[in-house]
């Protein structure tokens, strides 16, 4: 199935020159003059080699035909990360190599999209927004305006994010998993 390059997201699987690649990151760049482009970091599924590719945002890219289903995260052990399909209770193990940097987002019971090809898990797509708790943050500097200043913070899962000055330790916030950016204070 062909899709335009600008619609690619982290976790998608694309086919380039007959090989499958898992998208690690996709960034759209719109210069003031010239053609907008999409830069994509990918991992070749066959051997794990990382590749960078740049397309015009309107270029057609072949999205691979893989089995994509929702799974719930169960636990991690020496074998890998265990997920369960909610309707059939079928369990899959995702290796460290496929999980990559996504492990900091995992929370027990979290619903993720696993992509399998010929029975092997080749990519994982995390929810776009997740709720995390702030474990520690720097104190507020007097004189900073609340509207535009952000300070570094560490979540309980070890993820570093930039948060507004009014956010303190113990506060639950919603972050965007594409770029680890602060979205809002959690409603719960």
TrEMBL record:
Pathway named in the protein's UniProt entry: Protein biosynthesis; polypeptide chain elongation
GO cellular component: cytosol
Domain of life: Bacteria
Keyword Protein biosynthesis: yes
UniProtKB keywords: Cytoplasm, Elongation factor, Protein biosynthesis
Gene3D superfamilies: 2.30.30.30, Nucleic acid-binding proteins (2.40.50.140)
Domain Translation elongation factor P/YeiP central, first and last residues per copy: 68-122
Coiled coil: none
Molecular function as annotated in GO: translation elongation factor activity
PROSITE patterns for the chain: EFP
Domain Elongation factor P C-terminal: 130-185
Gene Ontology terms describing biological process: peptide biosynthetic process
SMART domains: EFP, Elong-fact-P_C
Annotated localization: Cytoplasm
InterPro entries: Elong-fact-P_C (IPR015365), NA-bd_OB-fold (IPR012340), Rib_uL2_dom2 (IPR014722), Transl_elong_fac_P/YeiP (IPR020599), Transl_elong_KOW-like (IPR013185), Transl_elong_P/YeiP_cen (IPR001059), Transl_elong_P/YeiP_CS (IPR013852), Transl_elongation_fac_P (IPR011768)
Its job: Involved in peptide bond synthesis. Stimulates efficient translation and peptide-bond synthesis on native or reconstituted 70S ribosomes in vitro. Probably functions indirectly by altering the affinity of the ribosome for aminoacyl-tRNA, thus increasing their reactivity as acceptors for peptidyl transferase.
Alphabetized HAMAP family for the sequence: EF_P (MF_00141)
Protein family according to the UniProt entry: Belongs to the elongation factor P family.
Protein name: Elongation factor P
Species whose genome carries this gene: Pseudogemmobacter humi
């Amino acid at each position: 199935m062909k899709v335009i390059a600008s619609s690619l997201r982290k976790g998608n699987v694309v086919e380039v020159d007959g090989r499958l690649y898992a998208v690690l990151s996709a960034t759209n760049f719109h210069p003031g003059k010239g053609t907008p482009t999409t830069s994509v970091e990918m991992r070749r599924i066959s051997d794990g080699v990382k590749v960078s590719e740049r397309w015009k945002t309107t270029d057609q890219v072949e999205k691979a035909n893989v089995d994509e289903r929702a799974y719930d995260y169960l636990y991690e052990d020496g074998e890998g990360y265990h997920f369960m399909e909610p309707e059939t209770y079928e369990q899959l193990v995702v290796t460290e190599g496929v999980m990559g940097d996504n492990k900091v987002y995992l929370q027990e019971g979290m619903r993720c999209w696993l992509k399998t090809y010929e029975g092997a898990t080749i990519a994982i797509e995390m929810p776009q927004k997740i709720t995390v708790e702030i474990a520690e943050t720097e104190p507020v500097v007097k004189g900073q305006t609340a509207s535009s200043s952000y300070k570094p913070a560490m979540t309980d899962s070890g993820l570093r994010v930039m948060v507004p000055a009014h956010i303190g330790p113990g506060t639950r916030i919603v972050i965007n998993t594409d770029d680890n950016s602060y979205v809002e204070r959690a409603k719960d």
